[in-house]
Amino acid sequence: MNLLLLLTIITGATFLLRFAGLTLKVAQTSPFWERFLQFVPISIFTALVVSSLYTAPELLTLKIIALAAGAGVMWRTRQFGLGVVTGLAVLWILSLVSTS
Amino acid sequence: MLPLWLGAMPFAIAYAIAAQKAGLNPAEIQLMSLTVSAAAAQMGIVQLLTIGASPLTILLTVITMSLHHVLYGVSLAKRLKLSRLDQVTTAYFLTDAAYGLTIADKNNENPAFLLGAELSMFTVWNLFTAVGILLGHVLTIPATAHLEFVVSLTFFILLISLVRTRSAVGVVIIAAAFTVICLTIHLGSLTIFVAGIGGALVVALLVERQKQYSQPLTRSARE
Fold first, then answer.
1. Which among B55, B77, B96 has the least Cβ separation from residue A48?
2. 3-class DSSP string for A14-48
3. Domain residues of chain B, as ranges?
4. pTM of the model
5. Residues in Cβ contact with A32 at an 8 Å cutoff, skipping those fewer than 6 apart
6. Gyration radius of chain A over CA positions
7. pLDDT at residue B80, as a whole number
8. Packed helices B68-79 and B96-104: angle between N→C axes, nearest 10 degrees
9. pLDDT at A31 over 70
10. Is A13 in contact with B179 (Cβ distance < 8 A)?
11. What is the average pLDDT value for chain B, to the nearest integer?
12. Could you tell me if A73 lies within 8 Å of chain B, comparing CB atoms?
């Protein structure tokens, strides 16, 4: 199949998935679904973080320490960017120390 | 937004380099960033093209990788008042990062914030795809830089800001368990969707059950 045609179909399919979600009106129907939707971002962010930790199991401990450091700095300073930079710096330092 | 841009930049360059190696021409590489505009899905497409997978396999893989976007849409529709035009534009540009930033602020009900976040990510992604196409052969990002970790870090920090109740802690534990199980049984690209639904659904059911049990108890205690 032509790549251009494949990309067109993929673009259409992914757009429809996103659009379908935005047009569904489940939220107004019951308190149960409202609660479910409140939990969805927490659940998906957890899945994204945990699955990313699995991509390089040899760095698991270092990544957990870096995540804790980043979250700790964000919690203390309320500065989102500073938390991210700290976490990344901690991972850099720890991975350099562990390989040397 | 800056940390998320920082996370997207190396991914976009890496995608462009991988796509060149897979035999795609510059126009096709850039077109994919303009139309699909999703890091994981584009990397998946390139990998599958490299191994000569069938178009149907590629399509089904991308769909399973994008299923959780349905949940993003439902969750955003609850929070934001979106006109039909807003729905079309936000659906086209929707990414994990833009969704995360919008939903993390509980008071944020402005569709313009979501669209702004989406467009900024789209611009950076496409700009650095072009950088990868033009300079990919001279640019080397050392693996020790771990720039891909910025994405996990960002989502973790957004997650911390969302967890405020015991039920939310329960969602984190159940979703983490679901993710580990899905990864252990090699569910692959369906992991995020299954764990995302599983964590939220199990805790929503538990809270519902608890409410059903506590109501008769409260009534009998009054009597």
1. B96
2. HHHHHHHHHHCCCCCCCHHHHHHHHHHHHHHHHHH
3. 2-162, 164-223
4. 0.72
5. B204, B208
6. 20
7. 86
8. 30
9. yes
10. no
11. 84
12. no
